[in-house]
Write a structure and sequence with these properties.
Layout lengths: L2 H6 L6 E5 L9 H5 L3 H8 L2 E5 L2 E6 L5 E6 L3 E7 L2 H6 L1 E8 L4 E8 L1 H11 L1
Antiparallel strand pairs: 1-2, 2-3, 3-4, 5-6, 6-7
């Protein structure tokens, strides 16, 4: 489990599921031009976690981007996968919250399991 989530769990909260970026991010132009250092850092420093109370997503190190939403405020988690995404088991997840809040995250490993674990908690 990532250090960010460990440091921000609230009382009686536990991690149900955690995933990372899929290894396909190593085949982007940014990754190739930086000799895969960009992809290693992106994958190592990002956390996609479902706890028994909320979804917590953290990206970045110096310029950090976090997304935290209580499970009760989430209407749905959508998964989009291309044909290659289905074969290699990666895709995009879109989290839609009450009030129209929408966040999309691309190239996530095992997105169907992410959605399934969310649905099991609701």
């Amino acid at each position: 489990m990532g250090s960010y989530v460990n440091g921000h769990l609230i009382r009686d909260e536990s991690v149900v599921y955690e995933t990372k970026y899929h290894w396909v991010i190593f085949f982007t132009l940014k990754s190739i031009f930086t000799l895969t250092i960009y992809a290693w850092m992106k994958r190592w420093l990002s956390e996609f976690v479902i706890t028994n109370r909320r979804i917590v997503i953290k990206e970045g190190f110096i310029a950090r981007r976090t997304f935290e939403m209580n499970l009760s405020k989430i209407e749905t988690v959508n998964v989009d996968q291309t044909v290659m995404g289905r074969i290699l088991n990666f895709g995009s997840i879109t989290i839609i919250g009450t009030g129209g809040t929408t966040e999309t995250f691309h190239n996530i490993a095992r997105p169907m399991i992410f959605r399934q674990r969310f649905q099991e908690l609701c």
